[in-house]
């Protein structure tokens, strides 16, 4: 897997267009300028969380004896479930509809940007080729930067696309992520059968 393909997978998982709808709905009472500052801060926090899992997550999993094939299959399953949620959204039970105060870490940095599927994907990448940690770091940095830029302009973009347009983009990204998650599961099964 190349740096660009890994970054695209992470970008699809971070789902900036779907999160744009959720974040702007949550922060609807906050002025656009302050909303942008919150989004920038939360994106940087999410990057730090994902970086910590990229660097330190696999030693922890190795301690528990988790193999790359197990990680690939389980990561693919998690991605598949997240992608189904993107294609058939029903977030009303998972997320509040409005925030009364300035959010800090939860729910924007984690789980919206640095969610379990992004963490699982990074762990799969790092476990598949630990010698190329710089490549996974580059992919993470690129994907987080693009996600942060999309979310930073999201008040303006959300206004232009409208709720229905943003949901349509999210569903398209969900379909692409379903394909990628199935491929990740098949790769894990192939690794398991070869070992």
UniProtKB/TrEMBL annotation:
A GO CC annotation given for this chain: plasma membrane
Keywords for this protein: Cell membrane, Membrane, Transmembrane, Transmembrane helix
Subcellular location as annotated: Cell membrane
Domain of life: Bacteria
Entry annotated with the keyword Signal: no
One of the Pfam families matching this protein, by short name: MarC
Classification via InterPro entries: Multi_antbiot-R_MarC
Predominant place of localization: membrane
Record keyword Translocase present: no
Membrane topology of this protein: Multi-pass membrane protein
TM helices/strands, residue ranges: 6-27, 39-57, 63-84, 104-126, 132-153, 174-193
Family: Belongs to the UPF0056 (MarC) family.
The protein's name: UPF0056 membrane protein
Organism of this sequence: Halomicronema hongdechloris C2206
Lineage: Bacteria, Bacillati, Cyanobacteriota, Cyanophyceae, Nodosilineales
